[in-house]
Amino acid sequence: MPQIEQLAATYASQVFWLLVFFGIIFFVIGRGMVPKVMATMDDRDKQIADDLAAAEAARAAADAEEEAWRVQANAQRAKAQALIAAAKLDAAKATEATLAVASARIDETLTAAETRIEAARVAALGEVEGVAAEAAQDIASRIAGLTIPADEAQAAVKGVLAHG
Amino acid sequence: MRVAEGKVDPVHQFTIESLFGTDHWAIGGYNIAFTNSALWMAITTVVLLVFVAGGSKRELVPGRWQMAVEGLTGFVDNLLMANIGKAGRKYLPYVFSLFAFILFANMLGLMPLALIGLHPFTATSHFTVTGVLAIMSFAIVLGVGFAKHGFHFFSLFVPHGTPVPMIPIIFPIELISFMVRPFSLGLRLFVAMMAGHVLLEVLSGFVISGTNAGPGIFFLAAVPSFLLMIGICALELLVAGIQAYVFALLTCVYLNDAENLH
Known about the structure:
Chain A contains 3 helices and no strands. Chain A has helices at 2-5, 7-143, 150-163. In chain A, α2 packs across α3 (150-163). The radius of gyration of chain A is 63 Å and the shape is rod-shaped. In chain B, a hairpin with a 2-residue loop joins β3 (26-27) and β4.
């Protein structure tokens, strides 16, 4: 086995050249290049994490904005509803007042008309009595030849009318 | 591959040879010849450099290459995060270097480059290499442990809820299992790499000998061996990844002991 047979002759050379080349690898690659590669990877990871965080923050901001918008919209809607309700109430009150005035006027007209009708009815009734009394006098004078005073005729007609 | 009298030497592939006439190089009496092992460690380093550099474009939307590099670093980072927690980030350069070096060395050793005349060499099949990596990991664990917890670090060897009379027995057992860690760490990788390569070499020896021995043996031994080799090559690619992962994972587990102390 050359590893053992040549040990005494070659160990110094093996150790020396290993230290030389491993030293080059350690100092040039291990300490020179690898930290840069790792820094690149860390930067990339950091940038991805930052971008994700920014996206998350933007999403949260959008959510907050939407929430604020909704609150505002709700408040405005409530205000509009209140305005509508007030307007409705006012309108109802105005209508009621107008209706009351109109109703009063109609009642007044109605009452006046009724009074007039009553007066007319009474007047008409009085005339009917007079006409009936005259007719009765006339009938009595023509049939019986009696001359009945107007008062008597009138009383008789009244009594008949009263009895119906 | 040394073929003596029609036989293939399955461990010849692990032989270390000096290259470019550098076998006399030395520092303080220690020979530091630039060997084929060193060459493949250099190739591993270059390939890894190209791979990571190609993915370091730092674009916000990664391309395929950057994705692959980020997948590798992210994988090691997750490993540290899962085993140590947030404090594991500071070990990322070391554990990544460890994982990537072992993975690329294992994989390059399996590349069929012999087809174009190159002989791949698996540096991680030598315990002189894996041992150094294991000792480094162990030393970092010890250093972090004592720096962070001082002598309180020794409480690692007394698990929670140990009855007082059991402490004299538990403590040495835990201490031994702790001290064995660098050996198990280094030997596991070395043995796994070597076993796979030896197996492939032995089977390829069967294919060569069987093919030379006539049609009967060819169909009886060479063809099944070749089919088996295809399967084992796939298995070895898996093992190359798993062993790199195990090495990095165990380093993380040990670092967690040092960092969080139970």
